[in-house]
Queue: 2 jobs
Job 1
Amino acid sequence: MTEYKMFEGCTIGNRIPFVEAASRKVFEILNIQTSQAPFSCCPDPTGMKSFDNNAWLTIGARNLSLAEEEDKNIISLCNGCTNTLRGVKHQLKHDSSRKEKVNAELAKIGKEYKGSIDVRHFVDVLKEKSDDIKNAITKQLSNLKVACHPGCHYMRPSEWMESDDPMHPTTLKEIVTISGANIVDYGVEALCCGSAVHNAYEEHGLQILKEKLDAVKKSGADVICVNCPACFQQFDTLQRNVSKKFEKEYNIPILYLTELLALAMGITPDEIGLKFHRIRLKSVIEKLEL
Amino acid sequence: MIDFEFRKQVMDYHMGSNIIKYCYQCSRCTDYCPVSKVTKDFYGTTGYDPRHNILNALLGYKEAIFSSDPLTIWGCTVCDTCDELCPQNIELTEIFTFLKNESITKGEGPDYLYSQAKAIFENAKAIPSQSAIERRRQQLGLPAVATPNVKEIQTLLRNIGSDKKLKEE
C-alpha cells in the first residue's frame, strides 16, 4: 500500500482545519494512507514566489527533500501548494544552474534535493479511485445542483501541472458526478477567483469574484464545489463583501470536494465541522435531508 | 531609454531560451486577462496590460514598467491564463515574477507580500498556528500540525539575502 506524505498547507492546517477533517475521513474510507512531516510553508506561489523566486525555490526544494528522505510521494490538499511543489521540481529539472545553487544552500542545513519523488493533487488521486468512491457512496446527492470551480493552479500552467485541460477542466465535475449530484454549467468555470490580485487591489479582486458569483447565481446552482483553500476562502469569506459593495444578495454556500464526498459517504455535517463555514449550509443540509 | 542590462536579465530569465523575443503582440494575453477586463477603460489606455509589459520588457524599457502605477506590475493575479493562450508559448507569468521580484527589492511591492514573507521568516508558515485553531483541530479529531524547523528556514532566507528585503511594520 502506498503511503503519501500529507501536505495540508498553511491555510487548511492553520485556518480552515475542518477541510482537513473531511479530507482525512474520505481518505480513510478510500484507503488512501498518509503520514505527517514537518513541512514549512510550501511557499505560496502567488506570494513568496512574487517576493523572491530564489527563496521560493529553496524553501520548496527543502520541503521536497523531507519527503525524499522517506522516499514517499506527497499528496497535497491545496492548489497553491501543489503548484509550488510541482513548479519547483519543474524549474530545477530544466535549469541545472538553479539546481546547483539551491543544493548549495540546502547543503548548509544538511539537506539535498534530488527530484526523486512525485507531488500529487488530491483531486488526481481521487480520480484514480473513482470505483472505490462509487462503492463508498451511501447517500446519493441527486437533489443537489453543483457549480464546480477547480481553480487556476489545479490545472495551470499545464506544462508542469499535467492534470486537466487547462481551459476546459473536467476532473472535478467527473468526481462530483459520482456522488449523484447534478453539475450545473455556468460558463466561466476556468476563471480565476481573484484571490491573488485581491491581496494587492481589493476592488479588482472583488470585481472578478462578482463575475463568477453572478454566473453561478444565474445558473441556479445550490452550492459551489472547490478544491483549493484560497478559492474556498475567497468564496466563503468575501462573498459578503461582494454583496455589500455591489448591493446584491448571493448567499451561495461552498463545499470543498472532500466535504461533498464525506456527506455522500454518510458522514454527518457535525463530524466535519460544516458549522464553521461563513456562508451557512442550512439550505444544502435541508435539501439533502441530513 | 533602453536599459540593456535589464533587457539581458529578461532574456535570461525565461527558462532555457529567449523565446520572449518571438512575441508578435497579438494581444491574446490582454484579451483574456481577468484583471485587464476589470481595470481597462473603454479605449484600453489605462489598467493592467500584460501585452504591454511583455513589449516593454523585451525592448528593455525598464523605466516604463517601474516608474508608472504599481498596477502595471502588481495587477497580475497569477492565474496563468496568458501562459496557456500565448500562441508563441511564452511563459509570461515567469517574466512577471521577475518584474515583481525587482519591485520587491526596490521596496515598492504591496504590503501583503512583505507581511507574508515576514510570517514565513518568523514561523516557517505563511499562517502561523493559533491556540484557537489548535483547539478546533482537537475537537475535529485532527492531529496537531507537525512543527516546522523555523531555524532552518531562517538560515536559508538569510543566506539567500531574502531577509534584507523584509520591512519593519
Job 2
Amino acid sequence: MALVVNEQQLNDIESVLQNDIIDLGVSCVVLIDMAGNILASRDNGSKKHDIYSLAALAAGNFGAVSAMAKIIGEDEFSLLFHKGKSENIHFSKIMTEFLLVTIFSNEVSLGFLRLKVAEAVSRITEIFSANGSP
Amino acid sequence: MAFVNPKTREVQIKIVYYGPGRGGKTTNLEYIYNKFNHRIKTDLVSLKTHGDRTLFFDFLPFDVGKILGYDVRVQLYTVPGQVKYDSTRKLVLRGVDGVVFVADCMAVVRRKNILSLKNLYENLSDYNKSIFKIPLVMQYNKIDLAEKGIPMLSPQILEKDLNAQLKAPSMVASALTGLNVIKTMKKIIMLTMPTVQGQLK
C-alpha cells in the first residue's frame, strides 16, 4: 500500500510552505511522514541540507520523543525544538501521520515561528481533509 | 508506507534490514554504500554506540532508476539487533514496505535467529502488518565463516527454523565479502515494487 497525495494537494501544500514559512525568513522546511518519507520541501536557497537523511532522523527522533512522553504519562510534548548556535530545528506534528520540520536561524524568533507554523499546520490539515486523503 | 509523488514523479520505498544483534545488518548497508558510493549522493547515516553497535538505526537512501516513468528511491534502514532495544526497533519499522531478515549462520546463535524472527512478527503485528504478507527476503549471512572451521547452521536447518512456514525467497550471503548482498537488495526491491505499482499512473 502506498500513500498518494494528488498533484493539486502537493501544489497547495508547497504554496503554504513557501508563503507561510519560507517567506518568514526560514531557511528550510520539510513535510515528512512518520516513516521518514518526504512529501514536500522548500528552502530559501541559502544552504543545501541533506533532507533525506534529515527526514529519516527527524521521524526517528519524533518517535523516540513520543515514546518518552508516554513513559512519563504524557500524550506528547507540545514543544519540540533543538537550539543551536546559529541554526535551530522545530518539529510540529500534523494529524497523526505527518511532521513539519523547520530549520531557521536566530534571526527568526521562536514565538513568531511557532505562531506561523501553527497556521501552516492548520492549512495543511485542511488541504489533506478537503480531498478526503490520506 | 511508500510515498508516491505524482508531481516530481518519485516513489519512496522503505526497506528495513532486521535480525539478531551482530548478524551483519549494518555490514550489508556498508557494503552497498561502498560499492555504489559514486551513485549515492549522501553519507551512510549510522546512529551507534561507542562500541560500534547500532543504537537506533542506519540509513542509506539509494536511487534505483526509473520504473514506469517514476524515479524510485529506496530508503534502506537497519534496526538495532540487541534485545534491549526493542522500543527503538519498533520505531524504525513504522511505515515499512519490505523486510530483509538477516539471519546469522553461526550455530551458536541459532536460538537468537528464531527469537529475532518472532520479535519481527510481533512488532509488525503492532502496526497491523502480517509477516506472511509483507515482502520479505531471508538472508543467511556469514557463510564465509564456514571456511574458518566455525560450527555453522546449514541452509537446510535455517530454512526449517525460520522459513518453513513463511516460504520467503532466501539466499546465503556474506555481507563482509559482498556475496549476494546486492542480490538480496535487488530481490527485496523486486518484491516490494508490485505493492506500489498500482498507484503509478
